Amino acid sequence: MEIQELQFGHRRVCIYKLVQSTAPLIYSIDYHENGQLLLDACRQVDCNGFNLVTISGLRWNQELSPWPVGTVVSRDDNFAGEASMWLPVLTGEVVPQVERLLGASPLWRCLAGYSLAGLFAVWTAYQTDLFTRILSASGSMWYPGWLEYATEHDLVSPLQGVYLSVGDKESTSRNAVLHTVGERTQALAHLLAGRGVNATFELNPGNHFKNPPLRIVKGIKWLLDNS
User: In angstroms, rounded to a whole number, what is the distance separating the alpha carbons of residues 176 and 222?
Assistant: First the structure.
């Protein structure tokens, strides 16, 4: 395994070259750099045959939110709606430099994310055709206006696979907005399937914070096996 690290302003990018450069390439947006945790989880579910790029250090609520909204989770939310500012950095700087270092274009690219990064990953499919696989584990599909946006807008990416999941206790939240996450995630899976996308929904045991690396890796495995 070869590991290289890059810096794009405040954002840290780690490249884990595990197999040949042309293999599927997973770009995973993480709150903290957790490449080794993801690889450890891969061994639990026998998931291999891809290369991994982790992206961390983002201003989480600001750079991953598609449009500004008020307080939802706590008084410190700061959902500033700066996704449209971060996306050009990802597509125009991060991806080209990563793949120059790998020395080849991958068979396909997946953008993966957990929580708000999962929402961002799905949102990108409406903005760019760069990623043809999307993975959203416990994604923030509760985000105000999101399901309506997804319904009213066309996909830009010719998606070949989408994996969506939530924990079975996430919809028990006392917060009226967060409470909708399960039904809205399932609704998105049905919406995408209705548009001809190979989309799946998985319900995992536990609350929002139970074993994020394993939940992401389960999605990677599904995409490798089914798309």
Answer: 31
